[in-house]
UniProtKB/TrEMBL annotation:
<dbReference type="Pfam" id="PF00275">
    <property type="entry name" value="EPSP_synthase"/>
</dbReference>
<feature type="domain" description="Enolpyruvate transferase">
    <location>
        <begin position="17"/>
        <end position="422"/>
    </location>
</feature>
<dbReference type="InterPro" id="IPR006264">
    <property type="entry name" value="EPSP_synthase"/>
</dbReference>
<feature type="binding site">
    <location>
        <position position="168"/>
    </location>
    <ligand>
        <name>phosphoenolpyruvate</name>
    </ligand>
</feature>
<keyword id="KW-0028">Amino-acid biosynthesis</keyword>
<keyword id="KW-0057">Aromatic amino acid biosynthesis</keyword>
<protein>
    <recommendedName>
        <fullName>3-phosphoshikimate 1-carboxyvinyltransferase</fullName>
        <ecNumber>2.5.1.19</ecNumber>
    </recommendedName>
</protein>
<dbReference type="InterPro" id="IPR036968">
    <property type="entry name" value="Enolpyruvate_Tfrase_sf"/>
</dbReference>
<feature type="binding site">
    <location>
        <position position="23"/>
    </location>
    <ligand>
        <name>3-phosphoshikimate</name>
    </ligand>
</feature>
<feature type="binding site">
    <location>
        <position position="166"/>
    </location>
    <ligand>
        <name>3-phosphoshikimate</name>
    </ligand>
</feature>
<feature type="binding site">
    <location>
        <position position="313"/>
    </location>
    <ligand>
        <name>3-phosphoshikimate</name>
    </ligand>
</feature>
<feature type="binding site">
    <location>
        <position position="22"/>
    </location>
    <ligand>
        <name>phosphoenolpyruvate</name>
    </ligand>
</feature>
<feature type="binding site">
    <location>
        <position position="122"/>
    </location>
    <ligand>
        <name>phosphoenolpyruvate</name>
    </ligand>
</feature>
<comment type="function">
    <text>Catalyzes the transfer of the enolpyruvyl moiety of phosphoenolpyruvate (PEP) to the 5-hydroxyl of shikimate-3-phosphate (S3P) to produce enolpyruvyl shikimate-3-phosphate and inorganic phosphate.</text>
</comment>
<feature type="binding site">
    <location>
        <position position="168"/>
    </location>
    <ligand>
        <name>3-phosphoshikimate</name>
    </ligand>
</feature>
<feature type="binding site">
    <location>
        <position position="94"/>
    </location>
    <ligand>
        <name>phosphoenolpyruvate</name>
    </ligand>
</feature>
<feature type="binding site">
    <location>
        <position position="392"/>
    </location>
    <ligand>
        <name>phosphoenolpyruvate</name>
    </ligand>
</feature>
Length: 435
């Protein structure tokens, strides 16, 4: 459904939270169900992607009962999962497809993995290559979904250097490695989010990090209750809306503050954003706290390529913010953005230009020229945003409403539910959704 968004709300002291973290929600089921047992997950993200993971685990034989965003999980243990499942549909969810591939090979399950049109275009060789080296038996693989997994003879451990900095690839290899014989080592020259390592450790696994090398081995783990902190990537949209608004104070409570996920806050601070971080403690090996944000005047920054993996999901919204910061912002080496749910480089550049804002892509760098004046830009009338059904493009460009006189028309707001359940309610705190 289209969203028509106009203007912004001003002079507000907003206190809110956002739904549970997407990455931790996926892992709380894909890794949490490896041991046999019963446990609960609190604040599970009931987004479309995370609901897909629920369905996939149910198809494999796990009992999951949900009440709002609390799950009661009863797992037979990974070795008792159904061994022959006709189809597992990962829909739009890259994290489900990549992580479950490691589990399918490790648990020796025969199945066919499929996805929607977007997921069926995204690269899977980066996951399948190491899994095949470990002994995974993949049939007739052409680089993308659908993928047919046949029974294998058991996996052997691997020492593997990630060819692309990807937490999804790292996680697939670590999950398969945990289910293999021997010690699996993954080398990541550029760090990526480490929720897989943190959760395995929380459940009792022997997993170590030494420099850029992570090692894991099959070791006794048990089911444990898991609490999912609020998603910092979802929070980023509200934070950026508050920054670009007028005299807004925003508090986002109980947000995941994992170092690998809060780099975008450091970048916003370097741009001049007033953001306070109030640490509150640790839940299942992950730091949690509140973020207090004040509307701020911003300036452009240069972001080097090794930082990109730790802000990969926030680049669309940071690009919109950069368009209203003084001077130029450069994101170096963003080619990975082209193989996300849509070609996000194209989505960012094309949609910013539609709003008469300046963005270019050359030599893998994304360059935004800030349009910096007090108040709103002169863009009037309406600006139609093409999302290509990409949730982060839809939400990033809603933030334009904070600065433009124009009405923002998002061609498909529903896709925001892929990662941000009930997104409209949260965004409505900042902007006026019109019929
Ligand atoms: C994710 C890792 C990132 C991110 C995605 C979630 C994860 O992808 O873009 O939204 O949960 O591991 P890559 O690691 O493939 O870049």
């Amino acid at each position: 459904m289209k969203a028509v968004i106009k203007g912004c709300k001003a002079n507000f002291d907003i206190i809110t939270t956002v739904p549970g973290d997407k990455s931790i929600s996926h892992r709380s089921l894909i890794i949490g169900t490896i041991p046999k047992g019963v446990y609960t997950i609190e604040n599970y993200a009931m987004s479309e992607d995370c609901k897909t993971t629920i369905e996939v685990l149910k198809s494999l034989g796990v009992s999951i009962v949900s009440h709002e965003n609390k799950l009661l999980v009863n797992s037979p243990g990974v070795y008792e999962f159904h061994k022959d499942v006709e189809i597992l549909d990962c829909k739009n969810s890259g994290t489900t497809a990549r992580l479950i591939s490691g589990l399918i090979c490790g648990a020796n399950i025969k199945t066919k993995l499929i996805g929607d049109e977007s997921l069926s275009k995204r690269p899977m060789g980066r996951v399948i290559d190491p899994l095949e080296v470990m002994g995974g038996n993949i049939y007739d693989f052409k680089g993308t979904l659908p993928i047919r997994f046949e029974k294998n003879r058991g996996l052997t451990s691997i020492e593997y250097e990630l060819p692309v900095p990807s937490a999804q690839v790292k996680s697939a290899v670590l999950i398969a490695g945990f289910l293999s014989n021997g010690v699996t080592k993954v080398i990541e020259p550029i760090p990526t989010r480490d929720h897989t390592e943190n959760l395995f450790k929380f459940l009792g696994a022997r997993v170590e990090k030494c420099g850029d090398k992570i090692s894991i081995e099959n070791s006794p783990i048990i089911c444990k209750d898991i609490i999912v902190p609020a998603d910092p990537s979802s929070a980023s949209f509200l934070i950026c809306a508050a920054l670009l608004g007028h005299n807004i104070k925003l508090t986002v409570q109980n947000v995941l503050l994992n170092e690998s996920r809060k780099t975008y806050i450091d970048i916003l601070k370097a741009m001049g954003a007033s953001i306070e971080i109030v640490g509150k403690g640790i839940v299942n090996n992950e730091p949690v706290g509140d973020l207090v944000v004040y509307s701020s005047e911003l300036k452009g920054v240069k972001i080097e390529h090794h930082i990109i993996p730790s802000i990969i999901d926030e680049i669309p919204v940071l690009s919109v913010v950069a368009a209203f910061a003084a001077g130029e912002t450069v994101f170096q080496g963003v080619e990975e953005l082209k193989v996300k749910e849509s070609d996000r480089v194209e989505g960012i550049v094309k949609n910013l230009r539609k709003a008469n804002l300046k963005a270019t892509y050359s030599n893998n760098n994304l360059i935004i020229q800030g349009f910096h004046v007090e108040g709103e830009t002169s863009t009037e009338g309406s600006v139609s945003i093409e999302t290509n059904n990409d949730h982060r493009i839809a939400m990033a460009f809603a933030i334009l409403a904070m600065k433009l006189k124009a009405t923002i028309i998002i061609d498909n707001w529903d896709c925001s539910e892929i990662s941000f359940p009930d997104s409209k309610t949260y965004f409505s705190k900042f902007m006026n959704f019109m019929k």
